[in-house]
Specification:
Elements lengths: L1 H42 L4 H9 L3 H27 L7 H14 L8 H14 L2 H29 L6 H21 L4 H8 L1 H5 L1 H14 L5 H28 L6 H15 L10 H12 L4 H39 L6
Length: 345
């Protein structure tokens, strides 16, 4: 009887484990289907004769410049991250942070949404500084400052380049802007997590809701360092400008007539959409958002897809380099683990 009573929980646990695994696989498969479906829909709308003609006149020098800017963007992001760690007296080398950042980008190819890379970054940083809470907080603040800079850039683009956009475009962006600014203001209210946890069941029972509150609390752990947060915001703003210029240079490489003001509007909104966990590694969503948003400002499907696909190839190439770094970095972490070489506060 005793042995039977012990077997039932283990059997139930095994069954639950299979359910969880199958559910995870089903979600991943669904997101992969979403990625492929969006790509297929776009491909059916391409004028392949014009597409290949645009490819044939590509300026290799400008493409190399776009790739270099993409690399500079990654390095700049590492500098920003280091500033957030310095304020807590954690001295992690730029090389280590670059390796961790690139490894996160590599795993981002296979994980849902660009936010998944933050989990990877937080994990590997915690192996370096032996402080999981601060590791998580630095990644969360890094991401949220990036989000605020995207919203700010989007608003400024609408105000300064209003003559480039149709009235319907500005009016459709306006509700998004109001909601975004409201969310940004609420992010700085310390009592919001407790209120939501008590009043809204989604935040107390749902895993995504609990993660959102956890991120909010981590964000508030940096409120005592306003200077560092302002600096991180400015770093993020420059990073977003580099990202926009990269896309604009990519368009110039194919002799596409796309106004810089339109790129300043489309890219920030597209980056926010890519953060949503709708596909695998942003595949399909990145291209779909570019095509849909550029269409709103008068750019053809062909032109926007050339820009998006070229950018995706460049991003993927840099991320694959992260795979090589991952193989080398993992063995280094193992050596440090056994030697006890971990940074403590």
């Amino acid at each position: 009887m005793l042995s039977e009573s012990r077997q039932k929980p283990s059997s139930l646990g095994l069954f639950e484990w299979f359910l969880i695994m199958n559910k995870a696989k089903a979600k991943y498969l669904l997101k992969l289907i979403v990625s492929l479906s969006i790509i297929i829909v776009i491909l059916t709308q391409i004028n392949w004769h014009d597409f290949m003609e645009s490819i044939s006149r590509a300026n290799v020098a400008l493409l190399l410049l776009a790739f270099l800017l993409l690399f500079v963007e990654r390095v700049w992001a590492v500098f920003k991250w280091r500033e957030l760690l310095r304020v807590q007296d954690f001295q992690v080398s730029l090389l280590d942070l670059f390796c961790i950042y690139t490894i996160g980008a590599f795993w981002g190819l296979f994980l849902p949404s660009s936010l998944s890379t933050d989990v990877v970054r937080g994990y590997y940083l915690s192996q370096k500084i032996s402080d999981t809470a601060m590791s998580t907080a630095s990644v969360v603040v890094d991401r949220m400052m990036g989000l605020f800079s995207l919203l700010f850039l989007c608003e400024v683009s609408i105000l300064l380049a209003d003559d480039l956009f149709d009235h319907s475009v500005a009016s459709s962006i306006l509700p998004f802007s109001v909601v975004s600014i409201t969310a940004a203001v609420l992010a700085f209210q310390e009592g919001i997590p407790d209120f939501l946890e008590q009043k809204v069941s989604f935040f107390s029972r749902n895993s995504i809701g609990r993660k959102v509150l956890k991120m909010h609390r981590a964000f508030h752990s940096f409120k005592q360092y306003p200077g560092a947060m302002v600096k991180a915001f400015l770093y993020s703003l420059i990073l977003q400008v580099i990202r926009v210029v990269t896309i604009y240079v990519t368009a110039l490489a194919f002799s596409l007539e796309v106004e810089l003001g339109k790129v300043f509007l489309v890219v920030p909104v597209s980056v926010i959409i890519i953060m949503l966990p709708l596909s695998v590694g942003g595949l399909g969503v990145r291209e779909g958002s570019f095509v849909a948003l550029f269409a709103l400002v008068g750019v053809s499907v062909n032109d926007s897809f050339i820009i998006a696909s070229t950018n995706s190839i460049m991003v993927t190439f840099i991320a694959l380099l992260g795979g090589l770094i991952f193989l080398m970095y993992r063995s280094e972490l193992e050596r440090e683990k056994y030697s006890g070489k971990v940074i403590h506060e």
